[in-house]
């Protein structure tokens, strides 16, 4: 047994749910907009701001026993935050500011 959790031991169906956020974003904006260097809508600072928005809504739902689902997409705020963090990290890895 490993000393840490390997990605293959995590729940793939939950990771596949990230596709729901990406699909919703592609419909609302444009597919792969977040990857464009010149895209004002999806620069890293705005992604961070959006991540904090979804995290604060998630924390609020935990503290106040309210819905943890986004009003617009009906997807869990944790999914939105996770997708934003992966976009930020992917942009970093690809050298996109």
Describe the structure concisely:
With 97 residues, the protein is an all-alpha fold. Helices cover 56% and strands 0% of the residues.
What structural category arises from helix and sheet content?
mainly alpha
What is the average per-residue confidence, as pLDDT, rounded to a whole number?
85
How would a textbook summarize the main sheet? none
- Helix count from the secondary structure assignment: 4
Low-confidence stretches are none
> Strand fraction band?
under 5%
**Shape by Cα distribution:** globular
- How many strands appear in the DSSP assignment? 0
Q: Rounded to an integer, what's the Rg over CA atoms? A: 15 Å
Helix content estimate: 55-70%
Euclidean distance between termini CA atoms? 39 Å
What is the H-and-E element order?
HHHH
Explain the overall architecture.
- It contains four helices and no strands.
- It is mainly α and 97 residues long.
- Helix 3 (44-64) runs antiparallel to helix 4.
- The chain is globular, with a radius of gyration of 15 Å.
- The chain starts with 11 loop residues before the first helix and ends with a helix.
Question: Helices and strands in order, then pairings?
Answer:
Elements: H1 12-16, H2 18-28, H3 44-64, H4 77-93
Helix pairs in contact: 3-4
